What we know:
Elements: E1 8-10, H1 16-28, E2 35-37, H2 43-53
Parallel strand pairs: 1-2
Amino acid sequence: MATIETGTILVGQKPVMNYVLAAVIQFNQGAQRVILKARGRSISKAVDAAEIVR
């Protein structure tokens, strides 16, 4: 079984702002780094979320 590290957000079909909010919550909880993971068509959505958070 694969395990997902804490601080990792899997990007899929939901709106971009959902992932932005999830990343901001992770940072507010004290995370030093948040990893956005996506595959296929969701990669552009992950990049958009990363740019907004940055």
